[in-house]
């Protein structure tokens, strides 16, 4: 596998307001969320996952998503999206001005059958009413396959199972799909092989990759995806977050760590790293606990240049 010629431009989605905050003990106010989202947009992020329209008892941290959407001043050219679980989610999205929703299904057959008595593909087939209702309301729809690279119940997921879910999404009219590693089990060669196969098999799909950094492989997996020609990735400010339903869950790769890497590589993102780091510092202050961000701990590599006398003094 060659790492010499990755894609030269990537599109990043900031999922911190949803995936980053959904696992926090403290509830972040709508006012604070709006400030963070506006900061992310000001830094140059073209896509932001604002929250989720799910039952507040299931994920209380997302209960104020409707209020957040109503309080936002939408900027032209920026996509503000939200996660939904059912038709009620579409209705809530329409009522508060959300114009893009994302459906999600677990790739684990064992888990899905145990919880819903249906396969993941059968679950996606049931999303048809959601897609129809969203399109009637002028709301765009994307899909996500959670744990596409492995789950706590199955270890690795057979590629054929993932393809079955992709085809179910295509059958209901969804052509933007995210492959998600919510359990943090993905590794680079696996990512490269799956992405290469998916890109070849489904050229009509707009692909996203969503990696958690549970075992420290998040950025390596992004590089593997880039090497396979993928150019859209989710990141989370300050590296916070994690799925509430996965043991030992950790957040997505830190937004600032990813942007820093891409800047150093000369890959275009359109994101101002200094402004992004200001937002991530704000997040860390709000949460009042250590976050999983190398850049917040160490700073940018280019800021480390010291003159020789200073180096000798420090030693």
Question: How does this structure look, described?
Answer:
- With 315 residues, this protein is α/β, with parallel strands linked by helices.
- It has a single domain, classed as TIM Barrel.
- The chain is built from 14 helices and eight strands.
- It has helices spanning 16-20, 30-43, 65-71, 87-96, 109-116, 120-125, 128-136, 159-171, 188-201, 218-227, 255-265, 273-287, 294-298, 308-314; strands at residues 11-14, 47-53, 79-84, 100-106, 140-146, 176-181, 206-211, 232-235.
- Strands 7-6-5-4-3-2-1-8 form an eight-stranded parallel sheet.
- α9 (188-201) links the parallel β6 and β7 (206-211).
- The chain is globular and about 70 Å long.
- The protein starts with 10 loop residues before the first strand and ends with a helix.
Feature tags:
315 residues; TIM Barrel; 14 helices; globular; eight-stranded parallel sheet; alpha/beta; single chain; 8 strands
Quick description:
Helix content is 43%, strand content 15%. The chain is α/β, with parallel strands linked by helices and 315 residues long.
Topology summary:
Layout: E1 11-14, H1 16-20, H2 30-43, E2 47-53, H3 65-71, E3 79-84, H4 87-96, E4 100-106, H5 109-116, H6 120-125, H7 128-136, E5 140-146, H8 159-171, E6 176-181, H9 188-201, E7 206-211, H10 218-227, E8 232-235, H11 255-265, H12 273-287, H13 294-298, H14 308-314
Parallel strand pairs: 1-2, 1-8, 2-3, 3-4, 4-5, 5-6, 6-7
Helix pairs in contact: 2-3, 2-12, 3-4, 4-7, 9-10, 11-12
């Amino acid at each position: 596998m060659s790492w010499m010629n990755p894609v030269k431009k990537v599109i990043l989605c900031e999922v911190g307001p949803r995936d980053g905050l959904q696992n926090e003990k403290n509830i972040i106010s709508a006012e604070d969320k709006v400030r963070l989202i506006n900061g992310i947009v000001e830094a140059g992020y073209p896509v932001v996952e604002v929250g989720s329209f799910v039952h507040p008892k299931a994920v209380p941290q997302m209960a104020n998503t409707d209020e957040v959407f109503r309080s936002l001043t939408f900027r032209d050219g920026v996509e503000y999206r939200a996660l939904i679980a059912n038709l009620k989610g579409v209705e809530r999205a329409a009522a508060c001005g959300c114009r893009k929703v994302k459906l999600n299904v677990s790739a684990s057959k064992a888990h899905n059958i145990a919880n819903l008595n249906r396969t993941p593909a059968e679950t996606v087939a049931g999303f048809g009413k959601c897609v129809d209702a969203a399109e009637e309301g002028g709301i765009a729809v994307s899909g996500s396959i959670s744990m596409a690279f492995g789950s706590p119940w199955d270890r690795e997921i057979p590629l054929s199972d993932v393809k079955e879910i992709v085809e179910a999404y295509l059958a209901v009219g969804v052509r933007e799909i995210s492959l998600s590693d919510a359990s943090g089990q993905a590794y680079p060669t696996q990512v490269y092989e799956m992405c290469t196969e998916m890109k070849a098999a489904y050229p009509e799909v707009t692909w996203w990759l969503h990696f958690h950094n549970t075992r420290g492989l998040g950025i390596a997996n992004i590089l593997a995806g880039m090497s396979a020609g993928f150019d859209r990735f989710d990141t989370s400010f300050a590296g916070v977050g994690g799925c509430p339903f996965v043991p030992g869950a950790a957040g997505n790769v830190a937004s600032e760590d990813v942007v820093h890497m891409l800047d150093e590589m000369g890959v275009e993102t359109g994101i101002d790293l200094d402004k992004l780091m200001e937002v991530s510092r704000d997040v860390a202050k709000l949460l009042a606990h250590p976050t999983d961000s190398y850049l917040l701990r160490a700073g940018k590599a280019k800021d480390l240049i010291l003159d020789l006398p200073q180096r000798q003094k420090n030693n």
